[in-house]
Write a structure and sequence with these properties.
This protein is mostly helical. It is built from 6 helices and no strands.
Length: about 160
C-alpha cells in the first residue's frame, strides 16, 4: 500500500509552491506588512484563486473541482511553507464543508457555487464589527480573519 501523495496532489502542491516562490517573496511580504504594497496581497490571492484553491472541495455540479480533503491539506502545507498571505482554511475548507454537509438546498446553491470572493462572502454577518483600516494580510480590506475584536459588547435585549 502506498502512503504518499498521488501524482495529482504532488503536481498541485508543486504549482502552489512555485507560484508563491515567484510572487510572494520575503521582501514582498515585508512590503505588504509595512503597508507599502496595498494591492500586492490581493494580486497574490487572485493568482492562487486562478490555481483553484477556492474550489478544491466544492463538487463539480457547483462548479468546483470536487477533490478530497487531502488536497486542502496539501494546499495548506504549501501556503504555510511559501508564506501565502491569503485566507484559506475558513473560507475555502471549513465554510464549504459546513454548507455542503449541513446547509439547505437553497444555501448550497447560493453559497457553494465557485465565485470570486469579492462577489459572494460566505459569512457576511461577521463583517459588521470592523473597519478597512484593520486589514492585516488577508488581501481584502474587509476580511473577518483580520478583524480586531469589538471595543465594546452590546448585551442582548432582555
Amino acid at each position: 500500500m502506498y502512503f504518499g501523495l498521488s501524482e495529482e496532489q504532488s503536481f498541485f502542491k508543486d504549482n502552489i509552491k512555485k507560484y508563491l516562490d515567484d510572487n510572494a517573496t520575503l521582501d514582498s511580504i515585508r512590503h505588504i506588512t509595512n503597508g507599502d504594497e496595498k494591492n500586492l496581497s490581493r494580486e497574490i490571492h487572485n493568482g492562487l484563486l486562478n490555481l483553484g484553491i477556492n474550489s478544491l472541495l466544492i463538487p463539480e455540479k457547483y462548479g468546483g473541482l470536487g477533490l478530497e480533503l487531502l488536497f486542502a491539506a496539501v494546499v495548506s502545507e504549501s501556503l504555510g511553507g511559501g508564506i501565502g498571505p491569503v485566507p484559506f482554511i475558513a473560507p475555502y475548507v471549513i465554510a464549504p464543508k459546513a454548507i455542503l454537509e449541513a446547509g439547505s438546498s437553497e444555501q448550497k446553491e447560493k453559497h457553494a457555487l465557485v465565485r470570486h470572493p469579492e462577489e459572494s462572502r460566505v459569512l457576511p454577518s461577521q463583517e459588521q464589527n470592523y473597519h478597512p483600516q484593520d486589514r492585516i494580510l488577508s488581501g481584502y480590506p474587509d476580511h473577518p480573519a483580520d478583524a480586531k475584536p469589538p471595543h465594546r459588547c452590546n448585551p442582548a435585549p432582555a
